[in-house]
C-alpha cells in the first residue's frame, strides 16, 4: 500500500548522494561492467563495453558467462582481435557459440563493422564523438546515428553467411525507436561518466545522458517519487532523468548504479516489509 511521506528536494539529494557514495566499485561484481574493468587499455575497454552492454539482458551471471566466452574466443585481446578480424578464419571457430537468441554470425557482423569504423576513426570514442551534435537533446540521439552507420557498414561490407532471426538488430539497441534502450544508455553511462565505476573515456556531456531503465530502476524510482510512470519506456527514462537533474544538473545519471543495486541485491522488496524497509538507506524518501 502506498503511503505518502514528505520528502524535500534537499532531503532526497542528501539520501541519494549517500547511496551513491555507499555503492562504490566494490560492488561491480553484481554488474556486467566488471567485464570492462578486466582490461587496462582504453581501446580494449571500449570494445568490451559495447559487447557487454549489447549482451546485458538476462541474469548478471548468465551475461558474464556469455561475455567471458566471447572474450575467450577473442583471445582476451578485444582491440587486437577486432582490428585483425578475418571472417573466413573466425566463423568456424565461433560455430558452437550462442547466447539466447544471439548467434555467432550476429556478434561477428558487429565486430566486422567495428573493424571498418576503427580504420576510419582509430578509437570508438572519436567515432561516436563525430556523430554528436550540440542540438542533441540526449545522447541516445547521438548513438542512434552510430547504429545507422553500423547497419550501413554491415550491409555494404559483410559478405558471409547471416544468421536467421533478430539477433544482429537486437544487439544494436536503437533509441530512435523510442523504447527504453536500457543497454544503449548503460553503455553510454559507462563510457561518458567518470568515477570509480564508470570509465569516462568518451568526451561527451554527462548532462545529456539518460538513465538506463529496467524493472529495478522503474520500480524504485516510482517508490521514491522520481517518476509517476509505471512502464519501462524511453518516456520513463526521460522523466526520471529530468527529476534527477534537479539534484545534479551536470551528472544526473550518477545515481543509476546505486539505485539499481537495491533491486539487484534484493535489498528493496516489492511489498513493504517493516524490518527490511526500515534498514534501507533511502527509507525516509520512500512511498512504499
Average per-residue pLDDT, rounded, comes to: 94
- Round the Cα radius of gyration to an integer and report it: 20 Å
Distance between the termini: 6 Å
What are the low-pLDDT stretches, counting only 5+ consecutive residues below 50? none
Number of separate structural domains: 2
* H and E order: HHHHHHHHHHHHHHH
Number of helices: 15
Strand content: under 5%
Helix content: 40-55%
- What oligomeric assembly is this protein in? single chain
Shape: globular
Structural class label: mainly alpha
The count of strands amounts to 0
For the largest beta-sheet, the strand count, sense and barrel status come to: none
Description:
- With 288 residues, the chain is mostly helical.
- The chain folds into 2 domains: 1-25 and 211-288, Helix-hairpin-Helix base-excision DNA repair enzymes (C-terminal) (Endonuclease Iii, domain 2); 31-205, no CATH class.
- It has 15 helices and no strands.
- It has helices spanning 9-22, 33-36, 42-54, 60-73, 78-83, 87-93, 104-121, 124-131, 139-157, 167-171, 182-192, 215-223, 234-245, 256-264, 274-278.
- The chain is globular, with a radius of gyration of 20 Å.
- The mean pLDDT is 94.
Amino acid at each position: 500500500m502506498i503511503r505518502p511521506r514528505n520528502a524535500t528536494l534537499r532531503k532526497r539529494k542528501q539520501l541519494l548522494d549517500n547511496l551513491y557514495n555507499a555503492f562504490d566499485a566494490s560492488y561491480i561484481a553484481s554488474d556486467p561492467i566488471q567485464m570492462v574493468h578486466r582490461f587496462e587499455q582504453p581501446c580494449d575497454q571500449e570494445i568490451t563495453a559495447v559487447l557487454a552492454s549489447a549482451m546485458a539482458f538476462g541474469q548478471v551471471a548468465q551475461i558474464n558467462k556469455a561475455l567471458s566466452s566471447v572474450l575467450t574466443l577473442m583471445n582476451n585481446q578485444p582491440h587486437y582481435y577486432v582490428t585483425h578480424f578475418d571472417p573466413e578464419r573466425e566463423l568456424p571457430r565461433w560455430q558452437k557459440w550462442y547466447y539466447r537468441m544471439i548467434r555467432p554470425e550476429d556478434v561477428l557482423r558487429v565486430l566486422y563493422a567495428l573493424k571498418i569504423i576503427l580504420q576510419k576513426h582509430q578509437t570508438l570514442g572519436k567515432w561516436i564523438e563525430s556523430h554528436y551534435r550540440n542540438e542533441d537533446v540526449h545522447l541516445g540521439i547521438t548513438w542512434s546515428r552510430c547504429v545507422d552507420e553500423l547497419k550501413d557498414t554491415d550491409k555494404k561490407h559483410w559478405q558471409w553467411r547471416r544468421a536467421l532471426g533478430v539477433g544482429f538488430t537486437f544487439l544494436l539497441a536503437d533509441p530512435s525507436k523510442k523504447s527504453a534502450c536500457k543497454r544503449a544508455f548503460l553503455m553510454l553511462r559507462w563510457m561518458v561518466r567518470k568515477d570509480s565505476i564508470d570509465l569516462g573515456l568518451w568526451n561527451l556531456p554527462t548532462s545529456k545522458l539518460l538513465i538506463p531503465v529496467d524493472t529495478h530502476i522503474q520500480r524504485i524510482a516510482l517508490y521514491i517519487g522520481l517518476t509517476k510512470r509505471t512502464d519501462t519506456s524511453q518516456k520513463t527514462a526521460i522523466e526520471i532523468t529530468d527529476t534527477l537533474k534537479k539534484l545534479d544538473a551536470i551528472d544526473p545519471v550518477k545515481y543509476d548504479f546505486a539505485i539499481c543495486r537495491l533491486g539487484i541485491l534484493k535489498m528493496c522488496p516489492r511489498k513493504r516489509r517493516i524490518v527490511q524497509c526500515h534498514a534501507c538507506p533511502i527509507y525516509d524518501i520512500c512511498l512504499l
